[in-house]
Design a protein that fits this description.
This protein has seven helices and 20 strands. The protein has 313 residues and is of the alpha+beta class.
């Protein structure tokens, strides 16, 4: 899997000939990136909008002024290198350029791309070879270690970790096992639907009406074919959820389900640590439903349950 690094150097102020008041470097190590065939280098705004999602990067910060000055000095030497024009392979995320540096100082911004594979730099529409490794040598050991991590492989390994599983009859809503319920059964035995929203979409020149059912902020989805409930999304506590004899509410600490679902918790905690605890609501806590592809999953925000998805598929 391809991955990309972006190093964003902020809070920088330069004098006439050399940098000063350098305070901080932000290094964004991107996990999943562009496709070589379709996504050429455009600009930093496009990159930030498309790929700086909460779950798609790790962040390293350093306030080492000496490191920032060394990087800036090495960049100033680029004009002395032999240049070639940008070619077809100059893309984000391919096997050539995987690192982007954005240097900001005063009201000016400079951008370059660096290839860890070929030791080349794409700068001001030209490609230059870092022939004497000046740019590479300007990076600290901490930065080099960080940008050389294969984050895509690391997170994929965590995704393959074991999680807990439960049966469908261990999931109760208002003390009822609602698996297989249609709307009539749901309203009779569980709760009355109080909001209905309809929307029309066009698929291959045919119009289809989508109906969403709600109980306050909680969404109930019925299969359009057999009319049986297959998805429940809980965002408030108007419906009582019990899983394996534990009542679970929106706003509960993740610690409340830690012991009962220890494998799922261990996987969540690894993912949480992978992101350096810098990014909130980036992971979800998941419990598998036996004999199906369904699951119960939780959005976690500030170590608390903020949303619950029950997928009976």
């Amino acid at each position: 899997m391809r991955y990309l690094f972006i190093i964003l150097i902020t809070c920088i102020s330069f004098g006439q000939s050399k940098p000063k008041d350098l305070t901080e470097i932000h290094i964004y190590n991107i996990i999943n990136t562009f496709d070589i065939e379709t996504d050429p280098i455009i600009d930093i705004d496009f990159f930030e909008e498309s790929y700086l999602r909460e779950d798609n990067f790790l962040l390293l910060k350093t306030t080492d002024e000496k490191v920032v000055k060394k990087i800036y000095k090495s960049i100033s030497q680029l004009r002395n290198y032999n240049k070639t024009q940008k070619d077809y392979n100059t893309h984000f995320g391919n096997e050539r350029f995987k690192t982007m540096f954005v240097i900001e100082y005063n009201s000016y911004q400079d951008t370059l791309f660096y290839s860890t594979n070929t030791n080349e730099i794409y700068y001001k529409n030209y490609i230059v070879k870092d022939e004497r490794d000046e740019f590479k040598k300007s990076l600290s050991k901490e930065i080099i270690h960080f940008v050389n991590r294969d984050l895509a492989s690391e997170i994929e390994k965590i995704k393959n970790d074991k999680i807990n599983s439960i049966s469908k009859n261990q999931i109760l809503i208002n003390e009822k096992n609602i698996f297989g319920f249609n709307r009539k059964q749901f309203e009779k035995d569980v709760a009355k639907i109080n909001i209905i929203r309809t929307d029309s979409i066009i698929l291959e020149n045919e119009s289809e009406t989508i109906i969403d059912y709600f109980i306050n902020e909680n969404k109930i989805v019925f299969d359009p074919n057999d009319e049986k409930l297959f998805l429940l999304i809980l965002e408030d506590n108007n419906l009582q959820l019990t899983i394996d004899s534990i009542e679970i509410k929106i706003g509960d600490s993740i610690d409340s389900i830690k012991e009962k679902f220890n494998y799922s918790y261990a996987k969540w905690f690894k993912t949480f640590n992978f992101y350096n605890k810098e990014i909130k609501n980036v992971t979800f806590f998941e419990i598998k439903i036996k004999d199906s592809s369904g699951s119960v999953s939780f959005d976690i925000l500030d170590n608390k349950i903020s949303k619950i998805y029950i997928d009976y598929n």
